[in-house]
Design goal:
heterodimer, A: 355 residues, mainly alpha, B: 125 residues, ATPase_proteolipid_c-like_dom (chain B), ATPase_proteolipid_csu (chain B), membrane (chain B)
């Protein structure tokens, strides 16, 4: 069995150097102040996002530039994967699986809109990745399918087939993709949890903590959204929640569901684990949308805390690799958000509050 | 060629020149000492080696070999990791090449300690 030095000395030093090159907050502040999408893209010329300008200038389509950003993110995982010790590969493969699942979900959404809802949006099919991510799945056949049976046939040999076969009739009867998408998310997080179990004890502890916080983040936003916007009962929400969260237990879920204002519940949840964050919760938001934004800020802050904790700790663990992926995803999300805000002509204050 | 790559090339060139200069100086000094020693044609008297002295010498030589050998193995082990990590980081950020080389040199120091210890042991024999 290889030691931690053999596994992590090279890749973690490499990633530490890359982490130091992640765009600082000043760059995002400058991007936020840019007058237009073109001006923002011009500011990204000396960064790893320089290619976005070319894509945008050629097509004039920001969504294509976003697709290019997604390809870069996938390429990032593939690039790191080639330097990894074989014991860490299954986890990164599973992280890569998320992109494939999202891509399949997007393709099914296009089919659903066209076939079940009867909406025809020709352009949507241009924003799907047709190159194989993990397995060779012909996305064009999913997009242009005539039934869920046909989609299930296309997904033969993949774990998606069972989900499509099971939830296809439910989607048709409900007129909503909700349950199928939840099943896809469960598949991803189930695989991720299994991959984490295959790690060594030290790596497992770190991965459980980091991925657990991500699951908490997703679950809390789901509880709030499902209750506020879909008014789903507690048992349906509980069934939809992803198991494996780090902090969120059943009683907190119930409390969050019943609370009219979730901030006090979150405050109780945060005070014990992240005392530094209670100040953020002290700021009262008046309407539900700004409360939701505040909550997502707090959860992002929790994740940032965890990443900082990993970066300041013992260097020879899988934590540095996961922290790098999270920081890079965060950077790409900021770029995407700013470009979209510029495209939609949102004011500077609005952009900075989201960042 | 961009600025960091040019700086890395300049650092490597400077290091190589410095190393060759030190090797040349050390080589010249040792060679002159050796010639100075061979210039004297004085007859040398071999001391009589007792069994006890032979035992001391045997273990002394073994200790010197172990000090140097284990030091070299330790340094090799350390450099394999430090060097790999350093090269990984330098590939991403060439401007830290100087700092990275310091860490490789620190690992290399282990064999130097072993070498000095071996010399000290041999000096006592």
């Amino acid at each position: 069995m290889a030691g931690v030095l053999t596994k992590y000395s090279f890749i973690n030093a490499k990633l530490r150097a890359r982490i130091s090159q992640i765009l600082p907050d000043e760059v995002f502040h400058q991007l936020g102040q840019a007058a237009s999408v073109d001006a923002a893209l011009a500011l990204l010329r000396d960064t790893p996002y320089a290619h976005l300008e070319e894509v945008y200038n050629t097509s004039g389509d920001l969504r294509l530039a976003e697709l290019e950003l997604l390809k870069s993110e996938i390429e990032l995982y593939r690039n790191i994967r080639q330097y990894l010790h074989e014991s860490s590969m299954p986890l990164v493969d599973t992280l890569l699986l998320r992109f494939e699942i999202d891509n399949v979900k997007n393709a099914i959404r296009i089919y659903f809109d066209r076939k079940i809802r009867g909406r025809l949006d020709e352009s949507a099919a241009h924003y799907i990745l047709y190159e194989p991510i993990h397995r060779p799945i012909p996305m064009d056949l999913i997009v242009n399918a005539q039934s869920f049976d046909e989609i299930a046939g296309v997904c033969r040999g993949t774990p998606y087939r069972a989900i499509v076969e099971k939830y296809g009739p439910i989607v048709e009867s409900d007129g909503s993709l909700f349950r199928m998408e939840v099943a896809f998310d469960h598949l991803y997080y189930g695989r991720l949890t299994a991959a984490i179990q295959g790690l060594t004890r030290d790596d497992r502890e770190i991965a459980v903590r980091l991925i657990g916080v991500e699951i908490d983040l997703l679950n809390i936003s789901w509880i709030i959204r499902f209750k506020r916007f879909y008014d789903l009962p507690l048992d349906v929400i509980e069934a939809a929640l992803i198991p494996g969260g780090f902090h969120l237990n059943r009683s907190t879920v119930e409390e969050l569901y019943r609370a009219q204002n979730v901030t006090p519940v979150l405050q109780k949840f945060v005070v014990g684990t992240y005392p530094g964050l209670s100040a953020l919760l002290a700021s009262q938001a008046s309407d539900s949308t700004s409360r939701l934004t505040l909550i997502s800020h707090i959860l992002e802050e929790i994740r940032r805390h965890e990443v900082q904790r990993i970066l300041a700790g013992y260097p020879f663990t899988i934590g540095i690799i996961l922290a790098y992926f999270l920081l890079k995803a965060d950077e790409m999300k900021k770029v995407r958000t700013i470009l979209n805000a510029k495209h939609l002509g949102r004011p500077l204050e609005g952009i900075e509050s989201v960042l | 060629m961009d600025e960091p790559a040019r700086r890395l090339k300049a650092t490597i060139t400077q290091s190589v020149v410095a190393l060759l200069t030190i090797l040349a100086i050390v080589g010249t000094l040792f060679c002159s000492n050796a010639f100075a020693q061979t210039a004297h044609d004085e007859p040398t008297v071999q001391p009589e080696v007792t069994q006890e002295m032979a035992g001391v010498m045997k273990f002394g030589l073994l200790a010197a070999a172990a000090a140097f050998g284990l030091g070299a193995i330790g340094a090799g082990f350390a450099i394999s990791h430090v060097g790999a990590a350093a090269m990984g980081a330098v590939a991403e950020k060439p401007q830290i090449a100087g700092q990275a080389l310091i860490f490789v040199a620190l690992a290399e120091g282990i064999v130097v300690f072993g070498f000095i210890t071996a010399l000290m042991i041999l000096g006592k024999l």
